[in-house]
Amino acid sequence: MKRVYIETYGCQMNAADSALMEHLLAEAGFVATLDVAEATLVLVNTCAVRERATERVIRRLRELGRLKRVRPDLVLGVTGCVPKHEGESLLAALPEVDLFVGPDSYRRLAELVEAAARRPTIDLRLDGNEDYAGCDSVRVEAGHAFVPVMRGCDRFCTFCVVPLARGREKSLPLDEVERQVDAAVERGARTVTLLGQTVNSYHHGEHTFFDLLDRVSRVPGLPRVRFTSPHPSDFREEHFRLMAERPVLCPHLHLPVQSGADRVLADMKRGYTRDDFLRLVGTIRRHLPDVGLTTDLMVGFPGETEDDFADTLSLMRAVEFDGAFLFRYSERPGTFAARKHPDEVPDAVKGDRLARMIALQEEHAWRRYARWVGRVVEVQVEGPSRRDPLRSMGKTPDFKKVVLSCLHSVGETVHVRVARSTSHSLLAEGVPIEGEDPAAPAVDG
Ligand code: SF4
Question: What is d(CA 324, CA 196) in angstroms, rounded to the nearest whole number?
Fold first, then answer.
């Protein structure tokens, strides 16, 4: 029997791509397995966004390559951003790998695997028309489904490999998105997250991101819709107005800002200034006062001075994000920044700035979570808590983790009062409150 084991690295788009590959391979007779020892095909689906992720993937491929010494008929493949981005150099570095496939070639995967069983096979071409329409690969796990609505990126931020590894933007037809969301709901999804590298630049024919939100938020039987990751410059006020009118559109926005210094933002070619970003946050909070705002921030972009970094900390203070992914800059080959801006901020300086940024974010997150103590929140249950299997955990609409006082079914929605908070979760005490308005004011918080 043909069995495929897929290991996934990186973002949610990669996880959705792994589900897509599994689906396409199933049509060719492959059965998915979670046990690498029984696989006849091993695929490592990779992410090239950060240097460390690439190094980790290469180490893992070398490890898996050792399996081939005892099982020479095993096909070992690498898919996703890394083979597309690293290209020929990877070929020489990894002689054990039989198959290199880029993100636009998955429809041909089964035939490529067949060829790779005979000789090393490579298909890294980018295809501006491949949107994987018609593939019913959406996976529903713990009541949740990711539905890719657009792929690639046209923005070319100077530090980023995504446009090089995944190609230019292409959006799925709106009817096709709706069909996939309907199918996910049929399979038990209670939350759907619309995915795209710059999801709010979605456009297909005359349909825009507003139309996408409007249509998906009216799908029967779907209580929650999320989307990620938007680009700050692609928002229009009408998006927030619609989110305020339709509770099904969850009030959580992941807004990657990257830096709070105008000079750095300009060198990154982010397309907005610090003031633009702060104005956007003001508009969002005017329409959605309880919105959860999360972000991505980077320290040590080439040329970042202590003053630039101070601007980033002051932007963080002005916004007070509920959560943030904080990174050190790492130079990625082929990007504009790698060619034009030498990576000159010493590692020790990057480390020191990152530590200060983490400490500040922790302080903000404590405050943002503490605001909910005493209030009633709506929680959609995702499964048992990792720390206490006798309690369920779930998420609020604004994407805060809540640990409940007992076990509930996955996908169930309960209303509970928040008793305590940390910087990463809310703790509910007592039994769910029936029929209470989740927007009821705080009793003591
Ligand atoms: S918007 Fe910028 S950071 Fe985001 S995927 Fe596109 S190029 Fe990369």
Answer: 19
